Amino acid sequence: MTISLGKLGIWQHTSGLTPELAAEVEKLGYGAIWIGGSPEGGLGIVDELLDATDHIVVATGIVNMWKDDAATVGASYHRIVARHPGRFLLGVGIGHPEATKEYKKPYDKIVDYLDQLDEAGVPTEDRALAALGPKVLKLAAERTAGAHPYLTTPEHTREARKVLGDGPLLAPEHKVLLETDPDRAREIARAKVRSPYLQAINYLNNFRRLGFTDEDFADGGSPRLLDAVVAWGTPEAIGARIAEHLDAGADHVCVQGLGDDPLAAYRAVAETLLS
Questions:
Q1: Keyword Metal-binding: yes or no (predicted)?
Q2: Which of 22, 39, 67, 204 lies at a 20 to 30 A Cα distance from 96?
């Protein structure tokens, strides 16, 4: 890759992203801000975050291929990199079928969209692909800088690295929560994971590949499943869980802060892993 993400970033829904948060995250030492929630293809929010910071990378996690055409996204890419070279990574993906009426032949859609990004002049090394299963992971390695898996575990990271091989980017997302009470932590985690993810077939299939069963999906998620995808507890416990991804082959982990004060979680992770 020509873009340097560092070992840690944050993943934040567009609704919770502000220039002020971006500046604070940069000061904490994070290497990237991943914009969640399928940002609009015009990508005006990317300009806002880059203008408010000095060096941190901004990535999309992800632009939804069903929602925004590649020509529009490609034009946005060129506008952004002309002003902020080396600071933007275009993450794209197809989301999950339950959220998209025209969701059909998803693999063909991905290939076609990447072809169109080629035509729009978006370099392979400046884009990443949302990927969970082996087939799309392989495509990520062949047609982009690498993969951005969402809602995964260090065990998935280990298997994904085997599929990708050495070299391609592997940048999983992992949720973090500063809460030491198990019941409260799992209550917050369950509210985040239950909908839409435990109704989305692509995530359920990925969990099954990791050894989870229908029992783990019932009632909003078993403690085993919730503890696997949400790192909660003390800063040290959270940091140790995120480090498992790095040990398993991740190049970069983007943490998503849960709870009433995500910034507190970002500060705690930074103090543990970036200080």
A1: no
A2: 22
